[in-house]
Design brief:
Largest sheet of chain B: 6 strands, parallel
CATH class of the largest domain in chain A: Alpha Beta
CATH superfamily of the largest domain in chain B: Response regulator
CATH topology of the largest domain in chain A: Alpha-Beta Plaits
Number of helices of chain A: 11
Shape of chain B: elongated
Order of helices and strands of chain B: HEHEEHEEHEHEHEHEEHE
CATH class of the largest domain in chain B: Alpha Beta
Structural class of chain A: alpha+beta
Radius of gyration of chain B: 21 Å
Shape of chain A: rod-shaped
Oligomer: heterodimer
Strand order of the largest sheet of chain A: 2-1-5-4-3
Order of helices and strands of chain A: HHEEHEEEHHHHEHHEEHEHE
Largest sheet of chain A: 5 strands, antiparallel
Helix content of chain B: 25-40%
Structural class of chain B: alpha/beta
Number of domains of chain B: 2
Chain lengths: ~400, ~240
């Protein structure tokens, strides 16, 4: 697949070649056209001269009068060097020896070193068209070739100048458009390249980035990319959220515990060696609620408990739905005596909730902390095991209570 | 029933007699000749003739060059011609297969129309004629009406004699019809109250007092008539507009 740069270079090469060919052809045709006009010019000028001289010869066929008229024409027309009229076996020439130099018959234009000779037969002109015209002689006009060619050269030069001007203007316009397109393509390429980096964080491009495009189409493509990027970011966030969040309670799930807490937070807590409490909550008689009032009621209880937990805890505390009706709460920088206060607040708010089952819903909890229960925060799993055992004991002791030791 | 059958027979006979293959050859590029050619072609097609380019029963020739070319051929098909100024010059009146229509009316007829149109009394008409054309002019200009005044180079040579006459006829003489000569003659006549007339219709632009105008529609009809029929008279008069 060709890159845009090579495509542009190729197109430019084609364009330059096309323009060069155009210039050659236009020069050639201009030359042909100029030659044709030159031929017509000398032909028509000769016809007018012939008419003039012939008329004088018909009115008053006097050798001196005709030759004098020829001399004046030669003097007045710079390109004309001489002419000759042979009519009714009489010969009128200026200069005198002209016809000896060129012996011609019929009709034509011949080019010599420095002269152009135009010759054609002259016919009798009648007042009535019913009379058949007869050839009565020959007319010859001699032109200065350099003078006649000057006209052709000017014509060709003008043609070439106009062609080159048109091509130059066209080229400038095309180059300008190309530069705009190339600039926009490069900008778009950079834009795409920045998104293609493996560690890229999708960020919305600035207004300057978008407005930097000169062509509307490119701006639209960039805007589309921005919209798609935004959408991808949203989807990525959404996927991330769904991966670590429990959809029913809105709390973190066990993925978060395993991937984030254990991987990232625990090493940090271990280095810091500050107090750390783990509490494991379990709703009392949850199975009974499900069996008696249906799973929707159970879900409602879990949903409300999740909301209360989130609203009650600090931002630094980490609530995780650990099992079916079990919630694990991590209290960083807190001892279990401090954490139990937060749990009591949760219990108190849950008790106030009316689930329409004729009694309030309660939960039991087991708490374990560093430094009381383990020697280092790195023993995080051990803390959970201890909390789980204490939760079990809280259940045994009659539920709706917290066991800290 | 019998009447219908007879009429049908007459119609079929007429069609079989008149329908022939005709070649139309025009050797002149002047506008009246071109228009005449178109009209003739239309009339021929209207009368169920087939217009072909070769192997024809009848040839319609327009112009002297076409007629001269045809005279040299050995073929003996029927020839109908026009736009020949002097058919007698080529002896066409004696050729059995040549039938033509004159392109200018006989001077005598033009003279009579001139007198009638201008309400003039009959007088002898002077005709300046070049020596080269004298022989042929005598064929066309009867002594009863016309007096020939010959010149060698220019009609100016006849001016002194012209003053003795009242009317001047312009004959299709190539030397006389050179523009300079004609204009000189017409100017002289105007200056001396001589009336100038001619049978050549396109001379009207030179200020002649009377010219006969050729009726080209009728001329075309006459040519088609000659294609269909074979009259005794081999050269038919030129049809003129009244």
């Amino acid at each position: 697949m060709r890159s845009f740069k090579s495509l542009v270079l190729f197109q430019f090469a084609v364009l330059i070649s096309g323009m060069f060919l155009f210039l050659v052809f236009s020069g050639f045709f201009t030359f042909k056209l100029a030659s044709e006009y030159e031929r017509r010019y000398v032909d028509r000028l000769s016809s007018i001269l012939a008419e003039n001289v012939k008329l004088i010869a018909e009115i008053y066929p006097n050798k001196y009068l005709i030759e004098e008229s020829m001399r004046r024409a030669v003097e007045e027309i710079p390109a004309l060097k001489g002419m000759c009229l042979i009519i009714n076996d009489q010969q009128f020439c200026y200069p005198q020896n002209l016809i000896k130099k060129y012996s011609l018959k019929g009709k034509g234009i011949t080019y010599h070193d420095d002269e152009v000779v135009v010759y054609f037969p002259v016919y009798e002109e009648y007042a009535s068209q019913f009379l058949e015209r007869r050839e009565e002689g020959l007319f010859l006009a001699l032109f200065d070739r350099s003078y006649v060619s000057e006209f052709k050269n000017y014509w060709v030069l003008n043609g070439l100048i106009i062609s080159v001007s048109f091509i130059a203007v066209g080229l400038l316009v095309i180059i300008s458009i190309w530069l705009d397109i190339t600039g926009d393509f490069n900008r778009l390429q950079r834009f795409i390249d920045s998104l293609n980096k493996p560690d890229v964080v999708l960020t919305k491009p600035s207004k300057e980035d978008i407005e930097g495009f000169k062509l509307e189409e490119f701006r639209k493509v960039a805007e589309l990319i921005v919209r798609l990027t935004d959408r991808i970011s949203e989807l990525k966030d959404s996927i991330k959220r769904l991966a670590i969040t429990d959809p029913l309670t809105g709390l973190f799930n066990r993925n978060y515990l395993n991937l984030v807490v254990k991987e990232s937070y625990v090493p940090f807590w271990r280095r810091k060696a500050s107090p750390l409490t783990v509490a494991l909550l379990d709703i009392d008689d949850f199975k009974l609620i499900n069996d008696m009032y249906g799973h929707s009621k159970g879900d409602e209880v879990l949903q409300k408990l999740g909301r209360i937990v989130k609203e009650t805890l600090r931002e630094s505390d980490i609530p995780i739905r650990y099992g079916g009706e079990e919630i694990l709460i991590v209290f960083p920088s807190s001892k279990k005596e401090e954490a139990v206060k937060a749990i009591e607040r949760i219990r108190s708010r849950l008790r106030e909730e009316d689930f329409g089952i004729g009694k309030s819903v309660t939960f039991s909890s087991g708490l374990a902390d560093f430094p009381s229960d383990v020697s280092t925060p790195g023993e995080f799993c051990r803390l959970i095991e201890i909390a789980d055992k204490r939760l079990y004991r809280a259940k045994k002791l009659g539920k709706n209570r917290d066991v800290l030791f | 029933m019998v009447r219908v059958a007879v009429l049908l027979l007459i119609f079929l006979l007429d069609v079989s007699v008149s329908a022939s293959e005709v070649c139309v050859i025009n050797s002149y590029s002047i506008p009246p000749a071109k228009e005449l050619e178109i009209t003739v072609r239309k009339l021929l097609l209207k009368q169920n003739h087939r217009i072909v380019k070769s192997k024809c029963d009848v040839k319609v020739l327009i112009g002297t060059p076409a007629v001269v070319k045809e005279m040299n051929r050995k073929e003996q098909c029927k020839i109908v011609y026009t736009f020949v100024l002097f058919p007698e010059k080529f002896g066409l009146e004696k050729k059995k297969n040549f039938y033509g229509v004159r392109i200018f009316p006989l001077p005598e007829r033009t003279y009579k129309r001139f007198l009638k149109k201008c309400s003039l009394e009959r007088k002898k008409v002077a005709v300046p004629i070049s020596e080269d054309m004298l022989e042929i002019a005598r064929m066309y200009l009867p002594e009863k009406y016309f007096v020939l005044l010959t010149f060698k180079n220019s009609p100016v040579e006849t001016f002194r004699d012209l003053l003795k006459y009242k009317y001047v006829y312009i004959f299709p003489d190539s030397k006389l019809l050179k523009i300079v000569n004609l204009v000189t003659l017409v100017n002289f006549c105007k200056d001396n109250d001589l009336l100038v007339f001619s049978g050549l219709s396109d001379l009207s632009k030179f200020g002649l007092d009377y010219v006969d105008r050729v009726d080209y529609e009728k001329l075309a009809e006459l040519l088609v008539f000659l294609v269909n029929r074979t009259p005794k008279e081999r050269i038919v008069s030129c049809p003129c507009k009244e």
